[in-house]
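Figure 2 data, in text form.
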Amino acid sequence: MEPKAHQYTIRNVPARIHRALRAKAAVRGVSLNTLVLQVLEAEAGLVQPKANDDLDDLFGTWVQDEAVDRALAEQRVVDSRDWE
């Protein structure tokens, strides 16, 4: 028989952590409570981490950066002399 669940109170959570957790919960389509329970369960070593064999975890993580955009644009320039 599973023992009674416990209540936790976490104080002084910085706004940046709160925002990040809320955003991650929204992306996963779960409540903040469910997300925190999943993280606690994983950190406690009670679940096996999912073996990634694809790049799904990277989807939606692109950050707009002008320096990267410039570097990519430079790489996309075709020198017609290379094709003579």
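Caption note: The mean pLDDT is 89.
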